[in-house]
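Can't paste images in this forum, so I'm doing it all in text. The chain is below; anyone willing to post the predicted structure tokens underneath?
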Amino acid sequence: MTRSVSLRRLAPSEVALHRDLRLRALQDSPDSFGETFADAFVRPLEHWETLTRSVTEPSAQVMLLACRGDDVVGSAYGLLDRTRADAGRVGGMWVDPAWRRRGVGRALLEGVVAWAGERGLGRLGLWAPAHSPAAIALYTRAGFRETGERRPIPTNPSLWIVAMERELSR
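Text version of the structure:
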């Protein structure tokens, strides 16, 4: 990754930043997420406050930010799996188009892997847009493998997402 980018965790007070990043991601990549820009845009402040609390201290989950100075150029969630106690999930992965193919996505994934290690998790899963060879390649290079599970994207049923998973050493 470029030396001018660092990772940090979203702070509990950064509700507006969280909303802004999610809206940027949804606007930039509308066929990569399970919600639309229009739906997210009209959500009340309370939604964003609750969502921010769910991924900031003292929550067990995290939102990592890739930053260049004061500018956030990418983000990803580290989430606990709701069905498996030994597993986590990578969610909401997004990198600003100007920063793609510069190691930012890989750094975010490594950050989520480190978070999972801190939590003692044995595996990480994610859903990747099947129509994005770049995303599939990024996740594959980071050690994720397709599980064979796939489903339509809720916001565009003509496109599919595929489940990928990575075993973690404990």
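The chain has five helices and seven strands. The longest helix spans residues 104-118.
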